[in-house]
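Hi support team,

I've been running sequence recovery on a batch of backbones for a student project. Most finish fine, but this one hangs at about 90% for roughly twenty minutes before it completes. I'm not sure whether the input is malformed or the queue is just slow. I've pasted the structure tokens below so you can try to reproduce it. Let me know if you need the job ID as well.

Thanks,
M.K.
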């Protein structure tokens, strides 16, 4: 007998849907294929939970409904993994932290609800840095995730599991969260597409909060059309998140206008930064030159605020995190210290000291410090002022340009452990991604290049707020070349 699993292959959601309609594939076959892949690639440590049985059951039900001629949802049978910070009712949710050990979600995140309404199959929860804090996925209670391209390297973070799941073919598309680059940077390190939508495009209801004025759910995929389709499904107003303004103008249905000439800016300071790998710099400059020759406007502009954006980001996000994470006290959720006979304050302290990992504690301390009475103005207020300057400058840039292009990260994927002893060096590597979160603009990392060290790297494109359609059209153009 032929093993059906060997015959299944995935290229795009559209092809998959066509194969389902033709009867040359089934949802059941797809689920079996992915469960098999997840088992074979278990050493990558991408998944923290796999919902195999229920995925299979749902697949059979969907196959039946389709064969009966029932109308199909937009994500009919699409197999999706979600980062372990996104609530899925009656399923475990831990933010890769011991403090949420054994916690089970009591409701669906809006993004999950919307995907399920369109008949997606959620196959599991994906590994990440604890509370989405990190750039390598090494701060996880479940241990590190390996980059499938080279197992000595990190996949990036914090959504490392979500990136590797798509990279290694362990699901069709995945969701992560991006507070300072956690979708775009791992996409860059793994050679796939990662989109951070505009702040306010996708509901954060049911996403465990890290820094609420920065957080946004993002999408990993293998091609632009898949990412656009998932965005269409998860975007849009939500009574539970008042920051969400509108859905997309059906990003998935619009092919790129072929003759459009883009006005592209890049930051001189970014490309001349001493931390940027020279090969990444040269490759990007060459590609920009190619765009210029193709008739697009490409200009280097000054962005003298560049050196302030990482400090401003870490002051503001740790401040917000110190407040958001105050709720994990051992009384209401998850882990509780085993030590008895403690008064209430000692109980909180003990629970939090035992439950949180090193990096999360570091950030709670830093955030509490920058908000403390004596230092509030020196750090928090100052960082808010920087954020305002960056937003104002960005609005001016978008008067003259449609797109900003930057590297996604200054280097290719780090070696495992390389940056763990130097948190400042790790933070500084976020230099190109935190900009989009400070300003709320959408950004995408496109897997266009391979370094001579064998690792992939991407180009990051950003546009003005709520202009994802345009960004995705440009992305299609870039991916076709
Ligand atoms: N690396 C960044 C940080 O550690 C980004 C994290 C994120 O986007 N969740 O804060």
């Amino acid at each position: 007998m032929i093993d059906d699993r060997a015959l299944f292959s995935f290229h795009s959601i559209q092809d998959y849907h066509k194969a389902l309609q033709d009867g040359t594939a089934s949802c059941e076959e797809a689920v079996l294929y992915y469960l098999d892949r997840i088992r074979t690639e278990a050493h990558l440590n991408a998944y923290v939970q796999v919902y195999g049985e229920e995925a299979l059951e749902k697949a059979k039900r969907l196959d039946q409904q389709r064969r009966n001629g029932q109308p199909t949802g937009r994500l009919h049978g699409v197999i999706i993994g979600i980062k372990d910070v996104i609530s899925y009712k009656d399923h475990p949710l831990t933010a890769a932290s011991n403090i949420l050990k054994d916690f089970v979600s009591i409701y669906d995140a809006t993004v999950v609800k919307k995907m399920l309404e369109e008949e997606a199959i959620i196959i599991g929860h994906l590994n990440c840095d604890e509370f989405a804090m990190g750039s390598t996925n090494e701060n996880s209670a479940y241990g590190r995730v390996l980059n499938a391209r080279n197992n000595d390297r990190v996949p990036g973070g914090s959504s490392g599991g979500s990136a590797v799941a798509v990279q290694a073919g362990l699901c069709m598309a995945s969701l992560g969260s991006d507070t300072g680059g956690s979708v775009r940077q791992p996409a860059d390190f793994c050679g796939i597409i990662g989109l951070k939508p505009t702040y306010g495009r996708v509901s954060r209801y049911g996403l465990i909060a890290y820094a609420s004025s920065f957080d946004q759910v993002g999408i990993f995929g293998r091609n632009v059309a898949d990412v656009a389709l998932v965005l269409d499904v998860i975007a849009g107003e939500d009574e539970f998140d008042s920051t969400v303004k509108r859905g997309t103008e059906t990003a998935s249905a619009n092919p790129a206008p072929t003759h459009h000439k883009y006005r592209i800016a890049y930051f001189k300071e970014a490309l001349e930064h001493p931390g940027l790998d020279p090969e990444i710099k040269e490759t990007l400059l060459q590609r920009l030159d190619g765009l210029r020759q193709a008739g697009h406007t490409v200009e280097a502009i000054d962005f003298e605020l560049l050196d302030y954006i990482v400090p401003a980001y870490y002051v503001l996000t740790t401040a917000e995190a110190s407040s958001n994470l105050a709720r994990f006290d051992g009384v209401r959720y998850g882990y509780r210290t085993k030590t008895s006979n403690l008064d209430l304050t000692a109980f909180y302290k003990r629970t939090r000291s035992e439950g949180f990992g090193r990096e999360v504690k570091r950030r709670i301390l830093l955030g509490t410090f920058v908000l403390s009475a004596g230092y509030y103005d020196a750090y928090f207020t100052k960082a808010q002022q920087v954020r305002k300057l960056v937003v104002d400058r960005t609005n001016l840039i978008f008067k003259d340009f449609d797109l900003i292009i930057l590297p996604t990260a200054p280097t290719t994927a780090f070696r495992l452990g390389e940056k763990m002893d130097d948190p400042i060096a790790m933070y500084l590597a976020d230099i190109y991604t935190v900009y989009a979160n400070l300003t709320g603009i959408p950004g995408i990392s496109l897997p266009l290049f391979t370094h001579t060290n064998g690792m992939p790297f991407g180009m990051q494109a950003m546009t003005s707020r709520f202009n994802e359609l345009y960004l995705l059209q440009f992305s299609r153009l870039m991916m076709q070349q």
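--
Follow-up from support: It reproduced on our side and the slowdown came from queue contention, not your input. The radius of gyration is 22 Å. No action needed from you.
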